[in-house]
Specification:
The structure is a single chain. By secondary structure, this protein is of the alpha/beta class. The chain is globular, with a radius of gyration of 18 Å.
Length: 255
């Protein structure tokens, strides 16, 4: 019987790479996004090419009713959830210095990146607690954060704060859920090729050429997906609440 995985924002960028890897690993993938099903048809086909055909739920994770619908459709269709990957996220629509950042931008980023993580995890965790343990753990929750959880970028403060909040949520839920066999982990991508980084591609390419990243290349969605695959597996059954940097070594402090 296939394990069931929910991947929010799973039809583009890093999320698509994660969905494809999980399908390859044998998961039945449920992916959610704001676009209509016709707009993500190619993505769904590419996921299906790796394994089982995915279930797509059109939903905005910043909205309570939509979060509930993602879970309810998953349970209705498959009866359980074994893995949640909180991947959906946004960058500020306009980068502004923290002294000029608007309250609207703050709400937009925090609601999508942090609030949705908090309450999507709450929903799925409670569902996991009600289901039988049929594998080596009751469930796994993986949060896709960012190196921005630690790295200051005053021209997108709302994004940095939103990712730092995810880091604390990872610890909180790991602490609360460990006694019940639910494992919670965090992945912090660095500079990854995606539509979110298109607007700063020249800047980051120059930093890579200047040697800022020990592994001197752009990261790819597949790099993040590989980390998800390991955390989702049964290879790490004595660790929870941890994070891994998928950032080409950018986190290393070097003299």
């Amino acid at each position: 019987m296939a394990k069931i995985a929910i991947v929010t924002g799973g039809c583009r960028g890093i999320g698509l790479a994660i969905s494809k890897r999980l399908a390859h690993d044998g998961y039945q993938v449920v992916t959610a996004g704001r676009k209509g099903v016709q707009d993500v048809k190619d993505a769904l086909t590419s996921i299906a090419s790796e394994g089982l055909s995915p279930l797509y739920v059109q939903a905005d994770v910043s909205l309570s009713d939509d979060r509930k619908r993602i879970l309810s459709q998953t349970i209705k269709e498959f009866g359980r959830v074994d893995l949640l990957v909180n991947n959906a996220g946004v960058a500020p629509r306009e980068r502004k210095n923290i002294l000029e950042m608007s309250e609207e931008s703050w709400d937009y980023v925090i609601d999508t990146n942090t609030k949705s993580n908090m309450f999507m995890t709450q929903l799925v965790a409670n569902a996991m607690l009600e289901q039988d343990v049929i594998y080596n753990k009751r469930g796994t929750i993986i949060n896709i954060s960012s190196c921005s959880a630690e790295v200051s970028s005053p021209n997108r403060a709302e994004y940095c704060v939103s990712k730092a909040g995810i880091s604390m949520l990872t610890k909180l839920y790991a602490d609360a859920l460990a006694p019940y066999g639910v494992y919670v982990h965090e992945i912090r991508p660095g500079v990854i090729h995606s539509d979110m980084t298109e607007c700063v591609e020249e800047k980051y390419s120059r930093l890579i050429e200047d040697g800022v990243f020990p592994i001197a290349r752009w990261g790819e969605g597949a790099d993040v997906a590989s980390a998800v695959s390991v955390f989702a597996s049964d290879e790490l059954l004595y660790t929870t609440g941890n994070y891994i940097d998928v950032d080409g070594g950018f986190h290393i402090r070097s003299l």
